[in-house]
Design brief:
Structural class: alpha/beta
Number of helices: 15
Number of strands: 16
Helix content: 25-40%
Strand content: 15-25%
Oligomer: single chain
Largest sheet: 8 strands, parallel, barrel
Distance between the termini: 60 Å
Radius of gyration: 24 Å
Length: 522
């Protein structure tokens, strides 16, 4: 059990046990919001080599190792701590980005508080390796929080550092071949080793957390996926590590009072080897009840049915293929989680069209979409990303009434894409494995008595919606009016036992997806 002496659990109706957490209720504002944008931004963005840089730079078989040696030097001499030293965030202007994201229809915004690299992006009381002391020398979470709230967005933080213990074990290794074979990487350095260096006075073990025997097979990069759960063969974290993680996270919550918090963990951080996650959950919920009168929103992954009563379920890079009974979220990225220059160079991001289709599909199933827009080390996004976000905004400016504040209908959709969706695997990861959406696919949302039928493309002729045939019984009443959002044309339509058939407008406002607003006759 972690001590709560330094950082007490806030009093309230929630206590740190699973039964008490079942009192949790998702706030209505989250169900209405539908769309959030995420800055998954930290020192691993500085090299512009993509996700998991701080782990893979310590593996001589990895492209990121080779890139690190070329750009910074050998990791026995120049490690991840030195990447932090190079990070300046010199062009970061959070208000410019939040203005853009609000126009794109985002109703909440997430900032990366820390990643598996164990570096805190705020004025951290318990982690000296933080963005105020080192690197940018700015309180990044404070800046993001203020900008989000100025632009009317709810504010969330994502916390990933529970896994630094095992994730950074590669820093304990050494090259197996070459001129520096057997020379240890810098993952075991201590404070005493820093005399006369730029990091004098700082203990690398506060960052790397590698004062423990590594897990069997720690140098195998993909092994970590098999061991994401703490009871799957990893060397277990000690009490001091668990307590430091707990204290850091409570400090983060108390300082910035987030509306939402995301953990990159199964069930809860450090569960089941520590009660830290249970105590953090109770503190977060009780604190939000005191600050705002609702429980806030906390996300974790790979939840069983009982755990989904205790928090919101997050699916990574994937989607359910049914209407979920509880509100949930999918998180995805237009590229790599950490900025990758190569994706920009080959113009390889997801398109605005793909993002909009994902949003529509997820919302039709009672979910929300959290979209990561990678940020460069200097704090800016690139030109391709800018155009993608603007493209999302162009569609949302016309059609957002079919997204925000809606609820699922009796069925989420129809069309050929549905049958091709593979099942979820672990955290999610079925994204991009189904057939692409076409104008033959339809998704449904509702708001009050109004039904929105969203055609996933530009129709080439009449739109046939079989779910609205009278013999289906899904819409037993009569239809008073059908309109296309963004158009003033009066539409013609007919309804039979088998289908509703709509003649689309001659001019489509935005061909990414066409929304038909169907109003019942009273």
């Amino acid at each position: 059990m972690v001590s709560t002496t330094a950082e007490p659990v806030a009093p309230g109706k929630f206590t740190p046990d699973w039964e008490s957490l079942k009192q949790y209720r998702v706030p209505t504002w989250f169900r209405d919001a539908k769309f959030g944008i995420w800055a998954h931004w930290g020192p691993q963005c500085q090299p512009e080599r993509g996700d998991w840089y701080a782990r893979e730079m310590y593996s001589e078989t990895s492209g990121r190792y080779r890139a690190h040696v070329a750009a910074f030097g050998h990791p026995s001499k120049v490690g991840f701590k030195d990447v932090i030293h190079a990070w300046r965030a010199e062009n970061w202007r959070p208000d410019d980005l939040l203005r853009l994201y609000a126009r794109a229809g985002a109703k909440y915004f997430f900032a990366l508080a820390n990643h598996h690299d164990n570096f805190d992006n705020w004025d951290s009381k318990y982690q000296p390796w933080n963005s105020v002391n080192l690197g940018p020398r700015k309180d990044l979470i404070a800046g993001w929080a203020a900008a989000a709230r100025r632009h009317g967005l709810k504010f969330g933080v994502s916390v990933h550092a529970a896994h630094a213990w095992s994730w950074l074990e590669t820093a304990q290794g050494a090259d197996a071949t070459g001129p520096l074979a057997g020379v240890p990487y810098d993952g075991k350095l201590t404070k005493a080793d820093g005399k006369g260096t730029w990091w004098e006075g700082y203990d690398p073990q506060d960052l790397y957390a590698q004062n423990h025997p590594p897990s069997p097979g720690f140098a195998e990069l993909k092994k970590i996926h098999e061991r994401w759960n703490w009871d799957h063969g990893v060397t277990l974290p000690d009490q001091a590590y668990c307590e430091k993680f707990y204290n850091r996270t409570i400090d983060l919550i108390n300082k910035y009072q987030p509306d939402l918090i995301y953990f990159d963990d199964t069930a809860l951080p450090l569960w089941p080897v520590s009660d830290a996650g249970l105590k953090i959950a109770a503190h977060f919920y009780n604190s939000n009840d005191r600050w705002r009168g609702d429980d806030g929103v906390m996300f974790n992954k790979i939840l069983d049915g009982e755990q989904r009563r205790c928090m919101a379920w997050d699916v990574e890079r994937g989607s359910s293929n049914e209407i979920e009974p509880n509100p949930w979220q999918t998180d995805t990225c237009i590229g790599s989680w950490h900025y990758d220059r190569g994706i920009f160079d080959r113009h390889g991001y997801k398109t605005a069209r793909t993002v909009v289709h994902t949003l529509i599909d997820v919302v039709s199933k009672n979910g929300n979409l959290l979209l990561s827009i990678p940020v460069r080390g200097d704090g800016t996004i690139d030109d391709d990303e800018l155009e993608i976000v603007r493209g999302i905004g162009d569609w949302m400016q016309v059609n957002q009434e079919a997204i925000h504040g809606t609820r699922p209908w009796q069925v989420f959709g129809e069309g050929p894409q549905m049958a091709s969706v593979p099942p979820l695997s672990a955290q999610g990861f079925n994204e991009g494995k189904a057939k692409p959406f076409t104008a033959e696919d339809v998704r449904f949302t509702t708001k009050g008595e109004v039904l929105y039928a969203i055609v996933m493309g530009t129709p080439s002729g009449p739109v046939t919606i079989k779910s609205l045939g009278t013999k289906r019984g899904l819409w037993p009443g009569a239809i008073a009016e059908i309109a296309a959002l963004g158009s003033t044309e009066k539409l013609t339509w007919s309804r039979t036992d088998d289908a509703l058939v709509i003649e689309p407008p001659r001019v489509i406002a935005n061909g990414t997806a066409v929304v038909f607003k169907i109003t019942p006759r009273r």
